[in-house]
Specification:
- This protein has 8 helices and 6 strands; from the N terminus they run αββαααβαβαβαβα.
- It is α/β, with parallel strands linked by helices.
Length: about 250
Amino acid sequence: MPRVKKETTVKKQKTVIATPSKTRGKQSVKKIATLRQAQGKLPRNDKLSIPVYSLTGRSSGTLSLPKEIFGQKVNEKLLSQALRVYMTNQKILPGSTKTRGEVRGSTAKIQRQKGTGRARHGSIRAPIFVGGGIVFGPKPRKVSLDLPKKMKKAALFSALSSKMGDKGILGLSGIDKASGKTKEMAKLLNKISGGKSTLIVTGEKMDNVVRGVRNISGVSVLPANLINALDVLKHDMLLLTKNAVERLGVKK
């Protein structure tokens, strides 16, 4: 009798890989991030600081910035709306035309009412005649838009946070001792900003700083209570004094 081979069936065992849950994954990522921050591999985001330069352009420490002003999430829609309001309010619409009551011409009836076979007319200054008045032409006018105070403040903080994210903010110290010479301020700005358009924000109005930069193109000086989102975004660099940061914190 021939031998019959017995068929042996081998059951394949399914290997199940245990995948961590979403919450565990998030916790592990947070732990890794904190460990890397402790090792100095990642910058910390809880403290915002900028380098501070003296009037001679030398480094003189750092300046801590409040996160509620310079670390906010950038609201692009609000910034767009605020910029439209500020730019519209700066427009001048001087276009002017003369109506039929303002152009030169006789007030007499140009022809008799009946019997000519033509249309009746009363004035040579009518809009249908050459040299006559303009109907519904432009007149000098002022177009102004308004923005609520809370939206202005939020737009300013959003602009400052955007500028902070672009690393376009530096600190200044001892600027109150400026002599008002253009040469002194030009030398300082060339060292710090490298010729970029710069906005210097001070705690209060400083005539010596204004006098020193008024002949330098692309440089402006404003106190902290007068700046807005447009002033911040249209300049490449923002130079802040310690007093200006304090005034921004109490800005209403």
